[in-house]
Amino acid sequence: MSIITRSPFLFRINTGSCNGCDxxxxxxxxxxxxxxxxxGCRYTGSPKHADILLxxxxxTARSKPYLIEVLDELPxxxxxxxxxxCPTSCxxxxxxxxxxxxxDKYVEVDVNVPGCxxxxxxxxxxxxxxxxIWKRKIRDFK
Amino acid sequence: MSAEIIxxxxxxxxxxxxxxxxxxxxxxxxxxxxLQGRVGPPIYQNFIDVIKLxxxxxLVPKDSKEIVFMYAPVLGFAALIxxxxxxxxxxxxxxxxxxxxxxxxxxxxxLPAISHILGGSASSSPYAAIAVNRELKLMxxxxxxFVIIAFSIALYVGKGSAVLSLKDIMNYQLNNSPLxxxxxxWPAIVAFVIFVLATMEFPPFQVAHHNDAxxxxxxxxxxxxxxxxIYEMTxxxxxxxxxxxxxxxxxxCVIGGDxxxxxxxxxxxTVIFVMFFSLLxxxxxxxxIDQAFKFLIIVxxxxxxxTLVLVILSIKGLI
Lengths: 142, 319
Ligand code: SF4
Description:
heterodimer, A: globular, B: 319 residues, mainly alpha, binds iron/sulfur cluster, NADH_UbQ_OxRdtase-like_20kDa (chain A), NADH-quinone oxidoreductase subunit B (chain A), metal ion binding (chain A), 4Fe-4S (chain A)
């Protein structure tokens, strides 16, 4: 059981972020020094492969149906990580007419990574915390 | 009888090739990561991935053709397992004693791509439809390249009449010198390298698969759990099969007559083969599909035709 938790697949969804958080997420995948692959993670292109969902951005009215669709497609059990201030509290977009966030209206958020944008180290730390939670969820799911 | 079952299920085919291939895929990820200045996953990473995928929930899309969607991955996997039983391993295994296995090889090399096409098109996803279209276009060209390379080698070994037995091709090179040292085959070797990049879909041919910016996960987008794990294992078998084919075609060197030493030598050659392709993986960016198609139809096809012409000239005694 503990062996399969060393192979999480990550899927990221942008729900109207300003792209700051997405750039920081990209650095964890492909530039030197910050590397989530050493934790065994792999970025996938499909929510159906994913174990950990990374959400950036406040939920805008346009992106809300897609977020709900992606949450529907994830195989259970999965972990949700909110990257940046936006999904947690809508950040600087709070009270705008087009914002339907925050994220925890739609799904239980397991890890919050605060910052605007958060540093890559903080994101990797968030993923490491998500792995612990995923391990516990698998145990409870059986 | 029982020896044949062991050959099919455990030793050169089956379990051995699967384990070796999965390690090679992990090694590929590590080498790419190191070349990019990262740490990379542990060497057993792809094993855990496959084990994990077997433990996940199977999701089937509502509009898919369920039978094709679920069983298409098995087609490619079964084809490669069967081929690893037919094909000889230099100095280690004789092959299944067939005297036209080159033809079977040419057919079977297309089957993993066909299983991708079937699985992707049965999944009813528009992303998969685009990826299937691209895979089909690439396949039409790289199969031709492979056929031309195989045909020129068969002609050269038979001195004008095509030799379709891989064992004979291997023995010819063991008795004479390996074809990798023959300048006439150098264009074909470059073409073969491009063929491997295209059929494994490493960059620059990463147009139909793992191309997140463009088609997400391509034809694999709707697959999860066991079908996805079978696709991963098919990739593992494919890299081993390609390494064996490269060695039979161009350098079936062996050390002495000892099976164990030859096996270790074969594994060492496979490791070098995979590391070379990881290097290419790390240094190339991705083509667009039209660029990839044009490149494939011009460069490797021309290179393999050059080898074919040189071989015909040398058979006629002109060079
Ligand atoms: S948290 Fe900051 S950087 Fe991230 S998406 Fe929101 S505004 Fe942009």
